[in-house]
Amino acid sequence: MSNIKRGTKKIAKKATAKKTAAKKTVARAKAMPRRGDISGIAADLPDISDWKQAAEKLRIRPFYTGPNSLPFSCLEATRIRLDKKVGAVTFSYVNDFRLADHCK
């Protein structure tokens, strides 16, 4: 009889573990923003810096998880004039990243 109880407990633990893992996977999938989600970004222009590193330095979640982290909506892209040459193409403007005014 004790073997039946142990087997039932193991099955219940496996089911709970699977549910927990599924919830974590869904949470991670929702939490990772994309470049196109940044307000003010011009998709056809190159970035002057890596937006993920900029988000970490500006303490934007989910790239910075420490104290005083800010929501992703606080990351804003702005165009700056800079003659940047990428291969044979020269761009007059590039995307740069900063904190939005409402988050300062």
Describe the structure.
- This protein is of the alpha+beta class and 104 residues long.
- It has 2 domains: 1-31; 33-104, no CATH class.
- 36% of the residues lie in helices and 22% in strands.
- It is built from 2 helices and 2 strands; from the N terminus they run ααββ.
- It has a two-stranded antiparallel ribbon with strand order 1-2.
- The longest helix has 30 residues, at 2-31.
- The protein is elongated and about 75 Å long.
- The relative contact order is 0.15.
Compact summary:
It contains two helices and two strands. With 104 residues, it is an alpha+beta fold. The protein folds into two domains: 31 residues; 72 residues, no CATH class.
Ends: how far apart?
A: 64 Å
Structurally, the number of domains stands at 2
Q: Numbering strands along the chain, what is their spatial order in the largest sheet? A: 1-2
Computed structural class: alpha+beta
Rounded average pLDDT: 81
- Which runs of at least 5 residues are low in confidence (pLDDT < 50)? none
Q: Major sheet: size, sense and barrel closure?
A: 2 strands, antiparallel
Describe how the helices and strands are arranged:
Layout: H1 2-31, H2 51-57, E1 75-86, E2 89-99
Antiparallel strand pairs: 1-2
Keywords:
2 domains, two-stranded antiparallel sheet, 104 residues, single chain, alpha+beta
